[in-house]
């Protein structure tokens, strides 16, 4: 299969225009986006994406988790499709590019193929995975996890947001509960293009990240039980202070992650106090510890230490401690033959590149369980992501989409 010519490139201006148009849907309060999964803003973004796919001559399928699959026909209808995917849902204070660049970069690949009249043997399917972020309904990568057989559909439908609404109810409410069986689709290969969400590529002045692996993750949900009491009139030696236990556990998680350097992270992004009143000691504190490492043994050891030490911290304060794993995947190794194809495309196109391990989790982590999978990354300014100030350059956006175009064409087998 001859490689595409080095001059074969996407339309950078059209890609950037699409990114800016999608950024208008579910705007944040500081220039980013709040297009959380299964909200009305998500529904609006889905409709816009579908209109663009249909204008590009694609046909849309939707599965029972709400994941969208837009198909560009191949010449051999029996050939398994080459999938391109990522996600349009965002964090509450998300950026304009996390996930969106991969979906709209894939759309630009299709648009460029249409402009050039390129025919491929394999069909190509562009995917918008539902609920990648896990911000509203934990865990992250929920829909791709059901697709890969990691979660059941019933488990996913029952996941609740902080208001007690379930995934299944909200999916039906926005009208995006599709009829396709989740996971029935088979893939020839899967490519995901994504911003790095970290500082490595920008610091190394490399335009393309050739993603060889993704670090593993545990999300451990803690429920601490104290005793509600007056913050003013309750003597210090009479307190059953779940908030203090939480603080000591945060400090311990930080210590465990620092001790596990290099190649480990640990922290907490979400806490809820009950009753969450300024002058009432919390009766209940719920938070999720997020620990990650590309090293399996290190990841398991961090989890074991956190789960051993937290109950001791709580016992010393008379606080109840319940720990429930609510998210997990082991470190992922992407398909070497696809990784090599991405690297060769970057060289052919003249883009500075380096091998990189993904710090963030992606739907590709679950796709890798069911098909040869790899990722392409571009830098982001200051390594900042999951922040409304997330920023990339049009040149970075286009470079990764060029590499995606080449890797997808080589894999889908160009006929003309
Ligand atoms: O949590 C993650 O790594 C991804 O942003 N869902
Ligand atoms: Mn993402
Ligand atoms: Mn994200």
Describe this structure in words.
The protein is α/β, with parallel strands linked by helices. Helix content is about 35%, strand content about 20%. The chain contains twelve helices and 15 strands. It has helices at about 10-20, 40-55, 100-115, 140-145, 155-160, 165-175, 200-205, 240-260, 295-315, 335-350, 365, 395-410; strands at about 60, 70, 80-85, 125-130, 190-195, 210-215, 215-225, 230, 265-275, 280, 285-295, 320-330, 330-335, 355-360, 375-380. Strands 1, 2, 3, 4, 5, 6, 13, 14 and 15 form a nine-stranded mixed sheet that branches. A hairpin with a 5-residue loop joins strand 1 and strand 2. Helix 10 crosses helix 12 (about 395-410). The protein starts with 11 loop residues before the first helix and ends with a helix. About 50% of the residues are buried. The model has no long low-confidence stretch (mean pLDDT about 95).
Key structural traits:
416 residues; alpha/beta; four-stranded antiparallel sheet; binds manganese (II) ion; binds (2S)-amino(hydroxy)ethanoic acid; globular; nine-stranded mixed sheet
Summary, kept brief:
This protein has 416 residues and is of the alpha/beta class.
SSE map:
Blueprint: H1 12-22, H2 40-55, E1 59-62, E2 68-72, E3 82-86, H3 100-116, E4 124-128, H4 142-147, H5 153-158, H6 167-173, E5 189-195, H7 200-204, E6 208-214, E7 216-225, E8 229-230, H8 242-259, E9 265-274, E10 280-281, E11 284-293, H9 296-317, E12 320-329, E13 332-333, H10 336-349, E14 353-358, H11 363-367, E15 373-378, H12 394-412
Parallel strand pairs: 3-4, 3-5, 5-15, 6-14
Antiparallel strand pairs: 1-2, 2-4, 6-13, 6-15, 7-11, 7-12, 8-10, 9-11
Helix pairs in contact: 1-3, 1-12, 3-12, 8-9, 10-12
Bound molecules: (2S)-amino(hydroxy)ethanoic acid (HGY) and manganese (II) ion (2 copies).
């Amino acid at each position: 299969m001859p490689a595409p010519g080095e001059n074969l490139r996407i339309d950078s201006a059209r890609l950037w225009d699409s990114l800016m148009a999608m950024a208008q849907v579910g705007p944040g309060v500081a220039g980013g986006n709040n297009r959380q999964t299964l909200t009305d803003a998500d529904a609006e973004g889905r409709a816009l994406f579908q209109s663009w796919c249909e204008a590009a001559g694609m046909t849309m399928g939707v599965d029972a988790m709400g994941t969208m699959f837009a198909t560009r026909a191949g010449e051999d209808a029996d050939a398994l499709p080459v999938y391109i995917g990522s996600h349009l849902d965002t964090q509450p204070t998300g950026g304009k590019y996390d996930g969106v660049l991969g979906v709209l970069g894939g759309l630009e690949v299709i648009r460029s193929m249409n402009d050039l009249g390129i025919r491929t043997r394999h069909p190509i399917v562009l995917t918008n995975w539902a609920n990648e972020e896990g911000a509203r309904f934990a865990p992250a990568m929920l829909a791709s996890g059901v697709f890969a057989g990691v979660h059941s559909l019933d488990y996913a439908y029952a996941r609740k947001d902080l208001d007690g609404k379930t995934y299944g109810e909200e999916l039906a409410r926005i009208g995006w509960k599709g009829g396709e069986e989740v996971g029935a689709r088979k893939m020839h290969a899967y490519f995901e293009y994504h911003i790095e969400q970290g500082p490595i590529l920008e610091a190394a002045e490399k335009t393309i990240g050739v993603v060889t692996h993704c670090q593993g993750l545990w999300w451990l949900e803690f429920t601490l039980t104290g005793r509600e009491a007056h913050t003013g009139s309750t003597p210090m030696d009479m307190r059953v202070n779940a908030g203090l236990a939480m603080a000591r556990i945060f400090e311990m998680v930080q210590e465990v992650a620092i001790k596990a350097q290099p190649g480990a992270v640990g922290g907490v992004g979400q806490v809820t106090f009950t009753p969450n009143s300024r002058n009432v000691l919390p009766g209940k504190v719920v938070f999720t510890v997020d620990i990650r490492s590309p090293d399996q043994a290190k990841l398991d050891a961090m989890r074991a230490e956190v789960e051993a030490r937290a109950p001791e911290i709580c016992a010393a304060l008379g606080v109840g401690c319940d720990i429930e794993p609510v998210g997990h995947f082991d470190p992922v190794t992407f398909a070497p033959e696809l990784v090599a194809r991405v690297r060769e495309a970057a060289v052919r196109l003249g883009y500075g590149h380096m091998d990189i391990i993904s710090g963030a989790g992606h739907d590709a982590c679950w796709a890798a369980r069911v098909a040869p999978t790899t990722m392409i990354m571009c830098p982001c300014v200051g390594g900042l992501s999951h922040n409304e100030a997330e920023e990339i350059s049009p040149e970075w956006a286009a470079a990764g989409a060029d590499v995606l175009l080449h890797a997808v064409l080589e894999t889908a087998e160009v006929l003309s």
